[in-house]
Write a structure and sequence with these properties.
This protein is an all-alpha fold. The chain has helices spanning about 1-20, 40-55, 65-80, 85-90, 95-125, 170-185.
């Protein structure tokens, strides 16, 4: 009886205390200026939760909100499901957890700036009837053309290449719904109307 209790106690000790201590510890990120974060999983969960809260101030029909919610929810789920940083990196396929932390902080900073711009416009509208505020955080004119610069230089073999994994299914639902809606709105050609010549 006593042996059985001892074995149970040993097993419980290993599960609760020794396993976290025996977890793999990352020595370096291999990226200059990017330090190893020992509690990266907890930080990511906190940042992703905060991002999902902050994004609620963006109008629901904005593509930016849909995209951010989609990939943030996916990343948060992976972080909650996986305990090990290696598994998080492997499943997300978006770089090291330290890089993900930097990206999440940048996203929160961008959201903060966009919210300041949006709410600042609405406050001006409230106090002066002359201002017509819309959600236009980028402020880029319709006719603006962006120059795309492609760099075909080879990447050295010692530099890790992080290829993003597949996007969550929710990301594709919006474009599919729009195309279906457009197809429904097309008027059907009746026999009395002239059909275009091919």
């Amino acid at each position: 009886m006593r042996e059985r209790r001892t074995k149970k106690a040993e097993a419980m000790f290993l599960r609760r205390i020794a396993r976290p201590l025996m977890a793999k510890v990352k020595g370096t990120t291999g990226i200059v200026g990017l330090e190893v974060v020992p509690n990266a999983r907890e930080i990511l969960i906190s940042l992703y939760t905060q991002t999902l809260y902050e994004i609620t101030s963006v109008p629901e029909d904005e593509g930016y909100r849909k995209a951010v919610e989609s990939f943030t929810r996916h990343r948060l789920e992976v972080c909650k499901e996986e305990e090990d940083w290696e598994q998080i990196e492997k499943r997300l396929g978006c770089g090291q957890v330290e890089e993900l932390i930097e990206e999440a902080k940048d996203e929160l900073m961008l959201l903060s700036m966009l919210n300041e711009m949006y709410w600042g416009l609405n406050l001006r509208k409230r106090f002066t009837d002359k201002w017509d505020a819309e959600w236009d955080p980028w402020g880029v004119p319709e006719d603006y053309e962006c120059e795309v610069i492609e760099n075909d230089a080879l990447i050295p073999k010692h530099v890790p290449q992080h290829r993003p994994g597949p996007l969550p299914v929710e990301f594709y639902k919006t474009p599919e719904a729009i195309t279906r809606h457009l197809e429904k709105d097309k008027p059907a050609v009746t026999s009395s109307e002239s059909q275009p010549k091919e």
